[in-house]
């Protein structure tokens, strides 16, 4: 999971070097990132369900093989076309692998305390890996060359495969007959891929009110509506809609969309603030975000399991979201002549603490309402909501920030001040998104014990998870 999350951000640091080396134009350069995002976001939900049907271990190993092979192709690429196609293939492998990981965790760890600890490790990697990617990208690009941001995946992938073959238990899926819904698969892939493309392409480049954006967005929503209608009537649905009867599954994914939308935008625009306003280089930016990673790691790995077991996941989630809101509001006060210790470090500390509390608890809630038979689907849904939330948040915040900057610059404001004010607007909107997430958490989410009881009753009275192992 760390390898996949790293790959989503490590490329950003190396983009200028790749552009110079392979001759990308400014507009075509974005497709190094977009090709990965479209394949990854478009296939997550299907990949999670395939894990339930064919076996999560099988899908995990297949995705790992695709991702590692595509990483080699990316590293060897000497032309624009080869790199973009290889990045798209990487996205396919990343979706297959990451979609089933959380589902494997909840079935491999039936004991509530061990499961909470494992989910804490997963949440740390999935959330803090982006900050690690900024640091790793800076180190590899500056000390060797950009090819190694992809080559580094190969020994990691091979080692992971060898360990997975020994340690992951074989699981028998439900069989394709339990959900071989080909029309549904085509509809959901089309809806999600087109939706992600609309967000990272026309919306980011032409604006949200552009005809292309509105047209493609409407088609994406129509495909999604057709998929839901199909699943409601199919004899063997790809995505049984019963999963959304769980308040925690539906609510946790909505909280994830809103909170990730706010945080992803801050990682991106915060990096730009450090680069364009404070004049940090790639390595310095990576170190600037290091407190986020360290705090998230400490809380997620060492303390989140204890807090969730002591107070419950919902009670642990809410203070974490509040700290994230405070951090975002604090970032709106970072000035043009700001200093790291006074204006950036407090934000990083609060972000790391808040995320370290919130995201492990959120993962626990998202999986507490899923039956073991739907664990892969629930896992894929969690990853899909994070991906869509990140892409949507980044596109919205970046667009509004740029519009604010252009408006102020057109009115005669100094360039640095116009940029900073644009970032401030984005941080305020990000804070608003997380406040909305708090509202959803308060009104929709229920204690995970109650959610598991509902799952047990739906399964015919048999406990879905054994608290005593």
From TrEMBL:
Top-level lineage group: Bacteria
Membrane-protein topology: Multi-pass membrane protein
InterPro entries: MFS (IPR011701), MFS_dom (IPR020846), MFS_trans_sf (IPR036259)
Domain Major facilitator superfamily (MFS) profile: from-to ranges: 1-449
GO MF term list: transmembrane transporter activity
Entry's transmembrane regions: 29-47, 59-79, 91-109, 121-140, 146-165, 185-204, 210-229, 250-273, 285-304, 316-334, 340-365, 377-402, 422-445
GO CC list: plasma membrane
Subcellular location: Cell membrane
Alphabetic keyword roster: Cell membrane, Membrane, Transmembrane, Transmembrane helix, Transport
Pfam families assigned: MFS_1
Name recorded for this polypeptide: MFS transporter
Species this chain originates from: Baekduia soli
């Amino acid at each position: 999971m760390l390898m996949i999350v790293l790959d989503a951000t490590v490329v950003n640091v190396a983009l200028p070097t790749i552009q110079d080396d392979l001759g990308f134009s400014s507009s075509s350069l974005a497709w190094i990132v977009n090709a990965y995002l479209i394949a990854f976001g478009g296939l997550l939900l299907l990949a999670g369900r395939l894990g339930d049907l064919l076996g999560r271990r099988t899908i995990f190993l297949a995705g790992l093989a695709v991702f590692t092979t595509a990483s080699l192709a990316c590293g060897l690429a000497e032309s624009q076309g080869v790199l973009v196609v290889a990045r798209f293939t990487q996205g396919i492998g990343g979706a297959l692998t990451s979609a089933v990981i959380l589902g494997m965790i909840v079935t491999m760890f039936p004991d509530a305390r061990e499961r909470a600890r494992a989910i804490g490790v997963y949440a740390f990697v999935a959330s803090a890996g982006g900050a690690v990617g900024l640091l790793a990208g800076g180190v590899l690009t500056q000390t060797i060359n950009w090819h190694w941001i992809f080559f580094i995946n190969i020994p990691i992938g091979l080692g992971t495969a060898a360990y997975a073959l020994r340690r992951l238990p074989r699981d028998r899926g439900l069989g394709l007959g339990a959900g071989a819904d080909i029309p549904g698969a085509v509809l959901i892939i089309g809806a999600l891929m087109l939706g992600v493309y609309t967000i990272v392409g026309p919306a980011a480049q032409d604006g949200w009110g552009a005809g292309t954006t509105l047209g493609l967005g409407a088609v994406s929503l129509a495909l999604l509506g057709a998929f839901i209608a199909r699943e409601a009537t199919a004899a063997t649905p790809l995505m049984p809609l019963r999963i959304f009867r769980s308040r925690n599954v539906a609510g946790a994914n909505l909280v994830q969309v809103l909170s990730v939308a706010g945080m992803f935008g801050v990682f991106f625009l915060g990096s730009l603030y450090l680069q364009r306003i404070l004049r940090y280089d790639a390595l310095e930016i990576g170190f600037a975000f290091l407190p986020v990673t360290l705090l998230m790691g400490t809380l997620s790995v060492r303390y989140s399991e204890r807090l969730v077991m002591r107070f419950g996941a919902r009670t642990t989630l809410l203070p974490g979201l509040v700290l994230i809101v405070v951090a975002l509001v604090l970032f709106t006060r970072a000035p043009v002549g700001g200093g790291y210790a006074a204006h950036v470090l407090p934000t990083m500390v609060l972000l790391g603490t808040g995320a370290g509390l919130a995201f492990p608890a959120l993962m626990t809630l998202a999986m507490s309402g899923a039956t073991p038979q739907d664990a892969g689907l629930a896992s894929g849904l969690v990853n899909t909501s994070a991906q869509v939330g990140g892409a949507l948040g980044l596109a919205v915040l970046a667009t509004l920030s740029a519009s604010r900057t252009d408006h102020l610059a057109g009115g005669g404001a100094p360039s640095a001040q116009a940029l900073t004010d644009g970032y401030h607007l984005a941080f305020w909107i990000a804070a608003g998104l997380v406040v909305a997430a708090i509202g959803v958490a308060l009104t929709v989410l229920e204690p995970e014990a109650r959610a598991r009881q509902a799952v047990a009753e739906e399964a015919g009275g048999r406990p879905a998870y054994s608290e005593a192992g």
